[in-house]
Amino acid sequence: MFLILPERPDDEAAIELLLDDAFGARRHEKASYAFRQDNPPVAGLSFVARSGNRLVGSIRFWPLMVGDTTVPSLLLGPLGVAPEMRNYGIGRGLVCRGHMMAEKLGYKLVFLVGEGKYYSRFGYKPAQPHGLTMPGEDPARLMVHELQVGTLRGVSGELHAGDCLRTGLLNPQPTNQARL
Fold first, then answer.
1. Could you read off the pLDDT of 54-77 as tens digits, one per residue?
2. What's the fold here for domain 3-161?
3. Residue-range domain boundaries for the chain
């Protein structure tokens, strides 16, 4: 059994160990980490999974902008689950909680760099056919999910760090239609 809870500041060391275990210590060399540098995760969109007192999963969402649009967008990642705790629904629970809260906060699109085979179950699809790119990343691994169906119409361009919600470019109305 596990619980999904908001990340706390004192979770940082345990999260770093979990992510090193899940992805290796060289994970910081990936281009998606450059997006996160000097760009804090969105408040209220970082969660952990706990089994008893042990941290067994983590997810964070980071602000990003798409081309020159003002579509409120996020970068999911990393999603990490302790190797011995995989296949218990922890990753699914973290992704679903993150999507629900992101939608409530007014975000419309979520991007990630990952395996389509895993993330397609959550509605992610390849971003490349939509003309969406991320500098330094393999275009075949860039995925996108619409929290609000139809948002991708007319959206294309390069992803870059930033948040149209934080910078005041846009003030979306939170939705009450969040779903798991």
1. 999 999 999 999 998 889 999 999
2. Aminopeptidase (3.40.630)
3. 3-161
